[in-house]
Amino acid sequence: MATGYVWHELYGWHDTGTNAGLLPGNLVMQPYLHFESPESKQRFHSLVEVSGLAAHLVRIEPTQVSDEDILRVHTAEHLARIQRESMQPRGGDAGDGTSPFGHRGFEIAALAAGGAWAALDAVLNDRVQNAYALVRPPGHHARPETGMGFCIFANASIAIRKAQSVDPNLRVVTVDWDVHHGNGTQAVFWEDPSVLTISLHQNDLFPRNSGAITEIGAGAGQGYAINVPLPAGTGNGGYLATLTDVVVPAIRKHRPDVIVVPSGFDASCFDPLGRMSVTTTGYREMTRILMDVANEVCGGRIMMTHEGGYSPTYVPLCGVSVLSELSGVHVDVIEPLYETYDTMPEHELIPSQMAVIEQVRELHAL
Ligand code: ZN
What we know:
alpha/beta; three-stranded antiparallel beta sheet; 14% strand; binds zinc ion
């Protein structure tokens, strides 16, 4: 079966305005792009096309999710505020002052959640084996009551809740490999044992004081949130060990019907917002490990939905590497110069990383 792929030109039109990185353009510094600009994602899509990969993928057309779908996860106040600000001539902000959106940004945010849903629906109905939703704005920081961290609506969570409205018995594991903590996804399913949320992230990066090992869920959901806060500098060795020693046994234990991956490429060695060192080879191998365990427990069903990743020149290579592995279609886009990054010393698994992995295994009896 084939690999599904979601992209819509409007994802590139989500307008985060003129900023100098995170700073608003207000004469503090010459205005430039917001970190969360269209660059990395549009160029990812361009490479999917130009590499020839697109011809082998099943294109899935997204449509906006409904207000009812958004309310499966978010409060009525959050939805109403986003819709109201979206009608302002200059748009608004998702909630934390660093997550701007332009006029009619609501519709693009609803289309991003709709992209995650369309991909998940195609996987669950066996129209494709697995799928990648290259959506924008991202979603994994958005909490029920607010957006934050460049996210407006919780794309993956909305897709999962909508799928559960069709099949109330649906069991899911989320594997968030964005460099930042998947705090929003965790918050949505905090007391829900049907969705095991796993987040691999740089220790105490964003949000601050979020994503500690001791955050494990509550009530009926106690034990159904797993956090792996890896030390800054972690490369392929630490990430692959986390996949093998934490993620795979947790998936075997939970036995989901589908694996959902909030996929950010900001743990890459070239990212301006993370301090990790994962390479395209690392992402490809992480994908392989997930595919193997998915074949074992859930008929190979994986849906990835795009989150962060802020290197306009490296995110496309990471994304195409993952899509190449997911689809089994080999494309050659990695130049020898970049292959040298695979042999750098930070890829060695070191004791500080092993200690985190061991603590998580012990706490969750993996
Ligand atoms: Zn991120």
